[in-house]
Amino acid sequence: MIVAIDADSRDTAEADHLLYELLDAMDQPVVACTHMVSGGDLPHVAVSIMSAADLADDIRHRFNQHHVGLAITRPQASEPELAGPSHLVRGAYVAAVEAALGTAGRVVRWPGHEQARGILLAKELRIRCGIDHLEAVGGVPITDDTLVDTRDFLRPIRRDSRLVLQLQPAAGNLLIPFELQHQQKCCADH
């Protein structure tokens, strides 16, 4: 099942926070993503949670008194359950479709994320952490023996129903995640 929520989060940090609140109460494996929503007044970020368990009632209850859009898809259902203000339902629906198709999404939680700690060989990162593909900016080659410093923070993306971790070169012949936990905003120094 997929539950997608558009709480009109203004950036990925705000959307991550929403996901962490939801995920803290869950004890089953999930794939949780953020999704960029364009159109409307301002671009913003929605979230999706995919699980074999039925999470709909718990999430619906949690957001009963909140101003959010919900899109809930169940296996074999002919159409999703939609609730909330129409401009937020649209964002939740987009997130649910992207999650279902595996075409987009910045992955915050997935089975294997807890193994992504320290410096790992590329092969270990794929096997232990459930990453399907590693790619480095600029076409830097990656072999099974390439060292990746996870910095204890990975945010793979979904592409073609696969988890793809984007990396960048760093000092010491290492690769590090392209998305760092504490990003410096562009032009922050002027």
Average pLDDT, to the nearest integer? 91
Continuous helix count: 4
**How much helix is in the residues?**
10-25%
Class derived from helix and strand content = alpha+beta
Low-confidence stretches: none
β-sheet strand percentage: 25-35%
Strand order, biggest sheet? 5-4-1-3-2-6
Give the number of DSSP strands. 12
Q: Give the radius of gyration.
A: 17 Å
Number of domains: 2
Which shape, going by the Cα principal axes? elongated
Order of helices and strands: EHEEHEEHEEHEEEEE
Major sheet description: 6 strands, antiparallel
- How far is it from the N-terminal to the C-terminal residue, by CA? 46 Å
Textual characterization of the structure:
This protein has 190 residues and is α+β, with helices and mostly antiparallel strands. The protein folds into two domains: 2-109; 113-177, no CATH class. Helix content is 23%, strand content 33%. It has helices at residues 12-24, 56-62, 86-101, 122-129, and strands spanning 2-9, 30-37, 44-51, 69-73, 81-83, 106-109, 119-121, 133-136, 147-149, 157-159, 162-170, 174-177. The strands form three sheets. Strands 5-4-1-3-2-6 form a six-stranded antiparallel sheet. The radius of gyration is 17 Å and the shape is elongated.
